Amino acid sequence: MVKDVRTRIAAAFTTAITAGLALVAAAPAQAVPSLSPYVAMGDSYSAGSGIIPLDPTVTPACARTTRNYPNLIADALGIESFTDVTCGNADTQDFYEKQYPSLTPQLDAVTNDTKLVTLTIGGNNNDTLIKVISACISAGTGTAGFGNPCETIYGDQFTNDISNKTYPAVKKALTDIHAKAPSAKVAILAYPQVMPKDNSNCFLVMPIAKGDVPYINKIEDTLNGVVKRAADETGTTFVDMQNSIGHDACKPIGTRWVEPAVWGTNFVPIHPNAIGMQKMADQALAAIGG
């Protein structure tokens, strides 16, 4: 009799499990929104300029690597349709015009079917990044690292240009991306930290006067601030890079995410290295839900 009871219990248990599995099989699967096709746009901080290997499908002038954060995102998400139009030295105007004869305007890659767009843009508008770093290195070298010669010479020029010119240009670019791909998730990344936030300096690898370090930090904060403002106003996901603080160009290899002007490992200085690219990809994936 004990055996019969055990048999009935086992049979009932088996029936319950079978019924449960049948219900699970019959239940509709939760739809996972597709992020393919994916289009990557932007400048050298998107292209990963200076990191080997270079992408053989684009002009070497872009210095685009196959290890940039867009490629890392596409791999992580298993995206089948991926178009990378990032290029070093691009600004928002290159979304509408050919940056080089062999290229098409970046915005041409975005279509009504696009489901994901990522970009880093704005730093080259008004030649901001180029002017700031080159001007401050030149000024700092002239004073052997003392004082704040760059701030003394240029004052509010850079922050005014960013607020008055870069901001509306970035906002227009984001608005136009959304218009071309109304169902796409659009994410714009901030620029990672270049100089130490504690305002210390490392003159031998970043020959900028100590007094100009907070000046450069203010300029970068202003740039990231207008990018965030433009993102917020256009329904774009803003990917914050505050976690790059402490990983600036003054830090040693393995800690820094951005290479210095001198003695760096990238052939394009003052740009994210391979670690920096991975960290930017990680932040973007977290922000877009990947």
Please give the count of helices. 8
Mean pLDDT: 90
> How would you sum up the global shape?
globular
Low-confidence stretches: 1-32
| CATH structural fold name | Rossmann fold
Could you please describe the fold and organization of this structure?
The protein has 290 residues and is of the alpha/beta class. The protein has a single domain (35-288), classed as SGNH hydrolase (Rossmann fold, 3-Layer(aba) Sandwich). The chain is 41% helix and 7% strand. The protein contains eight helices and five strands. The protein has a five-stranded parallel sheet with strand order 2-1-3-4-5, with helices on both faces. Helix 3 (69-77) packs across helix 8 and helix 6 packs parallel to helix 7. The longest helix has 25 residues, at 2-26. It is globular and about 55 Å long. Residues 1-32 have low confidence and may be disordered.
Keywords:
single chain, 290 residues, alpha/beta, Rossmann fold, 5-stranded parallel beta sheet, 8 helices, disordered N terminus
Mind sketching the topology for me?
Elements: H1 2-26, E1 38-42, H2 44-47, H3 69-77, E2 82-84, E3 116-120, H4 128-142, H5 149-154, H6 157-180, E4 185-189, H7 213-234, E5 237-239, H8 274-288
Parallel strand pairs: 1-2, 1-3, 3-4, 4-5
Helix pairs in contact: 3-8, 6-7
In short:
This protein is of the alpha/beta class. Helix content is 41%, strand content 7%. The longest helix is centred in the first third of the chain and has 25 residues, at 2-26.
